[in-house]
Amino acid sequence: ETRAALRELDRALRCDPRNRRIRLFRGALYLELGMVSAARRDLAQLVSRDPGDADTWYLYGLALQGTGEPDEARRAFSRAISLQPDFARAHCALGQIREAAGDYLGALREYSAATEADPALSLAHALRGVLLWKQGRSVEAVRALGEAVRLQPDRADAYLARGIAFLSVGRTAEALADFNRALELGPATPSLLVHRARAWKQAGDTELALQDLDRALALDPDNVTARLNRGIIRRAAGRLADSVRDLQRVLELNPSDAEAHYQLALTRMRRNQPTLALDELHRALGIDPRHARAWAAVGELYLQQARFGKALEAFESALDNDARLVSAYEGAARARMRRGEFSLALAALDGALRLTNDTEILFLRAGALYALSDYTNALESIDAVLKRVPERPDALLLRADVLEAQGRLEAARRDRARARALLEKTR
């Protein structure tokens, strides 16, 4: 029917070549059919003849986008907005141009202008929500995407985007519900299946995660994202040889993938292959010297080799590139403690505790405080650990040492006896 309509418009334009309305309809129809070069020709004629029509500039901008002319498209959308400041779809289109160019602040302004101009436009809320998620503003992203879903409950892409945002803030059950709804509304694309697999993994169900990744790879065997995630999840499931095969295939498809080199290194570490792991980490850092987790993994390998100075350098490089990487603070503290630098270790652990209240960090902090003869604070940290994990033998033995240092010998004896009993039970 669309092709038949196009033939009718062609005939009409042969009879009346200067008919603006018919040429506009034909340009819009060309866009709908993906014939962007033909649309560009029609719409370029129209904006040159009548430069005062906002709709024509908007459609011309879409055609320019399709022909790979982003700067010209940006000018066209800006012209449409100057003629009609509340043109919500033009704000959305201009926002997409700015976002693609890395101008997130400018893009967010356009998406916000679109939601103000037309609060019922689901597309504007969806675009704004996805950009907020990219900026790490996950809570705001969930709200914006929720509004997109409310306004247009049959939008599979809005459910997918909101599911991704839910996943990033740890709301796994809601993420799974959104991914399932997206699958009901639209096709099972590799991207959607990969995201649902990540949610299954976060929920602790590696089998369902692997099923989704197998489906994604059946649809697209060379999908790098799906294969990378399958390699990661196979490692988590203990299928280390399969993990290596997947990650090596990713690197065959994309040798400059720093994340794949890093993930292969982690699998090599699990297989007790430190030399091969270190080689992969150096390849990852050669591609991306700012890969903080790769630096932290290098630090872990040097710690295992008792090369504490090199380990410390690696952990500090990790923190230079990501000051919120808890594992790097922990690794730096352990390296400092092995070098006898307990005050500096304590400073690193306090940095980690500003980001997390992790039990292992508290345990290490107790050890550093004990070494510094700060028995009161050491005891406070150990008690916090034992409150969470009452049957932890190493924590009981450390508390016994602290109690003994305080002269509380009977209490120390009880803790040692309890720790021994737990160790015997484990054996």
Structure, briefly:
This protein is mainly α. It has helices at residues 2-15, 20-32, 36-49, 54-66, 70-83, 88-100, 104-117, 122-134, 138-151, 156-168, 172-185, 190-202, 206-219, 224-236, 240-253, 258-270, 274-287, 292-304, 308-321, 326-338, 342-353, 359-371, 375-388, 393-405, 409-426.
Walkthrough of the structure:
With 427 residues, this protein is mainly alpha-helical. Helices cover 80% and strands 0% of the residues. It has helices at residues 2-15, 20-32, 36-49, 54-66, 70-83, 88-100, 104-117, 122-134, 138-151, 156-168, 172-185, 190-202, 206-219, 224-236, 240-253, 258-270, 274-287, 292-304, 308-321, 326-338, 342-353, 359-371, 375-388, 393-405, 409-426. α18 packs antiparallel against α19 (308-321). The radius of gyration is 29 Å and the shape is elongated. The termini are far apart.
Short key terms for the protein model shown above:
427 residues, mainly alpha, 25 helices
Q: What is the fold's blueprint, element by element?
A:
Elements lengths: L1 H14 L4 H13 L3 H14 L4 H13 L3 H14 L4 H13 L3 H14 L4 H13 L3 H14 L4 H13 L3 H14 L4 H13 L3 H14 L4 H13 L3 H14 L4 H13 L3 H14 L4 H13 L3 H14 L4 H13 L3 H12 L5 H13 L3 H14 L4 H13 L3 H18 L1
Distance from N terminus to C terminus (CA atoms, Å) equals 76 Å
What helical percentage do the residues reach?
over 70%
Query: Rough shape?
Result: elongated
Mean pLDDT over the residues: 92
- The secondary-structure element order is HHHHHHHHHHHHHHHHHHHHHHHHH
Compute the number of strand runs: 0
Rg: 29 Å
Strand content: under 5%
Q: How would you describe the oligomerization state of the chains in this entry?
A: single chain
Main sheet makeup: none
Category from helices, strands and their pairing: mainly alpha
**What is the number of helices?**
25
- Any low-confidence stretches, pLDDT <50, length ≥5? none
